[in-house]
Amino acid sequence: MKFRAALAGLALAFSAVTCAFAAPEPVTRDYLIKDFRFRTGESLPELRLRYHTLGQPHRDAKGEIDNAVLILHGTGGSGRQFLSPQFADVLFRPGGLLDPAKYFIILPDNIGHGGSSKPSDGLRAKFPKYDYADMVEAQHRLVTQRLGVKQLRLIMGTSMGCMHGFMWAEQWPAGARALMPMACQPVEIAGRNRVWRQMAMSAITSDPAYRGGDYQAQPAQGLTSAAMLLVLAGSSPIPWQQQMPTGAAADAWIAQELPRRVAAMDANDFVWQVASSRTYDPSKDLEKITAPMTWINFGDDFINPPELGIAEAAAKRLKTTRFILMPASEKTRGHGSHTWAVLWQDELADLLKRSE
Questions:
Q1: High-pLDDT (> 70) share of the chain, %
Q2: Model confidence over 13-68: pLDDT tens digits?
Q3: Which of 34, 278, 283, 38 minimizes the C-alpha distance to 137?
Q4: DSSP secondary structure letters along 35-47
Q5: Quick check: 119 and 269 in contact, CB under 8 A?
Q6: Are residues 22 and 148 in the same domain?
């Protein structure tokens, strides 16, 4: 009850903020990496990584940038998703925890997403079969080589970005002063999580209109089935029941929502995005993580169900980590709770303080 009352108070405060604040427009640029070689052995003569920034870099007495914050998006998203009101209007507002007047915020579009190189640019099914390691390598080059940041003030990641955060922390333990992964597990993707992903990809690739990735028009049947699975994976039972308390309301919602989602999808881009998780497994090297971390999962997350106990077991090996499982409520949003900053901004404030 106390948790719900606190969320209600935060929601009122959030409403007051959104009435008076509009998220700033970021500076958008492209970083072109020549002769990028993927782990499969494939390569591109030029890999484009689009990124968006807010604020300006600050340099310490040694001339090093000390205020850079890297925020990593999830599967199918882009860096611009963090300009949504539920995130930006809480964190990026004047005086907010990640106020661009204080921090240099970096929002990349990962390989295969947004404005970065992806199959739908023209290569289609001939596009290299990238994985998370390729994506993290490109992020690291952007941060260190293009932007000249030796150590990030914070890495924050949601869903796929959460998993990328674990990979960053193991590969470059001194790469960030603080870590905040949200909505993921630091183990191989298996069980139901693997199965629904395979089902979504198969729905597309088994559609005769897919034609091995050389389709003339989007394979609508396959995309519709994949979008249905995505809707379920991102569902949150308590608010959905409140918002759609009758069968008619639920039918009306899905009739409107499904076409909107399908219209925004490209078949090859989606298959490559989902398949990129196939090699992820940071479980062997968790002890390499030494930076202060706050890791948050959510009680109503279909993709990362808390009843498996995976997070609690992993957290015992993370000596600098505060693991939090937020209980499901009418304010949480299932897997998507990671983008509703009103839910967890106090934990971010605590992390920034203890990593000063």
A1: 94
A2: 444 444 567 778 999 999 999 999 999 999 999 999 999 999 999 999 999 999 99
A3: 38
A4: EEEPTTS-EEEEE
A5: yes
A6: yes
How far is residue 349 from each of residues 6, 97, 262, measured CA to CA in Å?
Answer: 16, 7, 37
Residue with tokens 């909107």: 260
pLDDT tens for residues 246-285? Answer: 999 999 999 999 999 999 999 999 999 999 999 999 999 9
Distance CA 145, CA 105 (A): 16
Phi, psi (deg, nearest 5) at residue 20: -115, 5
Instruction: Give pLDDT tens digits for 281-306.
Output: 999 999 999 999 999 999 999 999 99
Q: Is 151 exposed, middle or buried (0-12, 13-18, 19+ CB in 10 A)?
A: middle
Q: Give domain status of residue 197, yes or no.
A: yes
Is the same domain home to 230 and 333?
A: no
Q: 128 with 42, same domain?
A: yes
- Least Cα distance to 112 among 226, 267, 216 occurs for 267
pTM recorded for the entire structure: 0.93
Is the same domain home to 201 and 330?
Answer: no
Phi, psi of 138 (to 5 degrees): -65, -40
Strands (E), 84-173: 104-108, 154-158
3-state percent helix, strand, coil for the chain, nearest multiple of 5: 50, 15, 35
State whether 337 and 255 are in the same domain. no
Is there a single domain that holds both residue 110 and residue 179? yes
Provide the number of structural domains found in the chain: 2
Q: What is the bridge-based pairing of β-strands 293-298 and 179-182?
A: parallel
Helix or strand or coil: residue 65? strand
Give the structural domain span for 29: 2-189+282-354
Shared domain for 182 and 207, answered yes or no, is: no
Asked if residue 221 and residue 138 are part of one domain, the reply reads no
DSSP H or E segment with residue 49: strand 43-54
For residue 240, is it left (φ>0), alpha (ψ between -120 and 50) or beta? alpha
> Which secondary structure element, helix H or strand E, spans residue 261, and what is its range?
helix 247-263
Which two structure tokens, joined as six digits, stand for 114?
A: 């947004």
Phi-psi region of 194 (alpha: psi -120 to 50; beta: other; left: phi over 0): alpha
